[in-house]
Amino acid sequence: MIQRIQTLFLVLAAVVLSMAFFFPLITYIDGQVWLEVFLKGIKDNSAPVFGLSNKLLLPLQIINGITILLAIASVFLYKNRKSQMKMVRMGIVLTLVNIALVFFYFANVLARITSMAPDFNHTAIYLILVGLVMFVMANRFIMKDEKLVKAADRLR
Q1: Residue of 101, 44, 116, 43 whose CA lies nearest to 67
Q2: Residue 136: is its pLDDT beyond 80?
């Protein structure tokens, strides 16, 4: 049944994670030097340009894209709950990897390049975290459905 609650959570996860491409992820601001990092690229408005390539963000873009595709594909696996659970769990893991890359790798690399402290208080970080919560909630309701079906099979 495609009208289950986990379908709503998975669609919301896909929408929220795709919206994260259009909002800033990290900023580095120090007077007239500022650098904004989006998932779709880097906006460098500093006087001496740092010369950062958008290819630096390619792993984040690929992981976020795969996570969006997993969310959309798992919506249509409603007849096979075990495969749906596997795909949702993979989405959870990839979202956690995405968050870890942002906080522990890219923030440190860019902080070394710019010699400024990163500011994480931006919309894209929160959108990725909301996507993670949506995946967890979808997994929870899929497991609940699986338990319900197993209980009904025992009664037969």
Answers
A1: 101
A2: yes
Mean pLDDT of the chain: 85
Q: How many CB atoms lie within 10 A of CB 152?
A: 9
- Our count of domains for the chain comes to 1
At CA 89, angle to CA 83 and CA 90, rounded to 5? 90
Contact (Cβ atoms closer than 8 angstroms) between residue 77 and residue 84:
yes
CATH number where 44 lies: 1.20.140
Range of the domain at 93: 5-155
Q: Which phi and psi (to 5°) does residue 13 adopt?
A: -60, -45
Gap between the Cα atoms of 33 and 53, Å rounded: 17
User: pTM for this structure?
Assistant: 0.86
Mean pLDDT score, 69-79: 92
Burial category of 57 from C-beta neighbours within 10 Å (exposed 0-12, middle 13-18, buried 19 and up): buried
